[in-house]
Amino acid sequence: MTVPSSRPTSVRLGAALLAVVVALLIPASPAWAHNTLVSAAPAQESTLSSAPTEIVLEFVERLDPTFTTIVLTDAAKRKVPTGDPVVGGAKGSVQVTEALPNGTYTVAYRVVSTDGHPVQGSYPFTVADPDSSAAPIVSTTTDAPSAAAQVQDDEGPGAGVLVAGGTTAIVVAVVGGLLLRRRASRR
């Protein structure tokens, strides 16, 4: 009795695994399309000759007002009073409720992408008003949390981790099924 070559079975098994992986990853690709900051006013790393009265952030995707946070802190990492975030489409803004003396400030934001993934970031800008008589705010060495730390990240596993785990589980199940089928057909 001749034993059939295992090469065609190996080729079929490899092709099946490749098809499963491709089929799982193609529909999952939108899960990796996270929201991105497109523009900001004041601009990132800018130096302003007068203090802004509003912070406006524009993103690639529409924002969910419930899950949009914008925080402004000074050089001493103290939170600067602002109004609640106002969201319209892909833009989010806050009104600065107090005059800002000269100094460096940090804008921190946290928004949720359409895939449900939280996205956060921060950037600095500087107020250098030549007519300001207020003393500039300087950095201190206290352990006050930064603006980015004040926008807490409470997300669970990222979408990529979940997709990879699901893909691995399915591939293991398919390979196991194919091996059991192959073993049964040899008997």
TrEMBL record:
State the signal peptide span: 1-33
* Protein's UniProt keywords contain Zinc: no
Q: Which residues cross the membrane?
A: 159-180
Respond yes or no to whether keyword Metal-binding is given for this record: yes
Give the UniProt subcellular location, in the record's own words.
Cell envelope
Looking at the record, the residues that make up the CopC domain are 34-127
Instruction: Write the record's keywords in alphabetical order, separated by commas.
Output: Copper, Membrane, Metal-binding, Signal, Transmembrane, Transmembrane helix
Where it mainly occurs, coarsely classed, is other
Q: Which GO terms describe its biological process?
A: copper ion transport; response to copper ion
**One Pfam family cited in the UniProt record for this chain:** CopC
Q: Give the top-rank taxon of the lineage listed in the UniProt record for this protein.
A: Bacteria
GO cellular component terms, semicolon-separated:
cell envelope; periplasmic space; plasma membrane
Q: Name one GO molecular function term.
A: copper ion binding
Provide the protein name: CopC domain-containing protein
Which source organism does the UniProt entry give? Micromonospora haikouensis
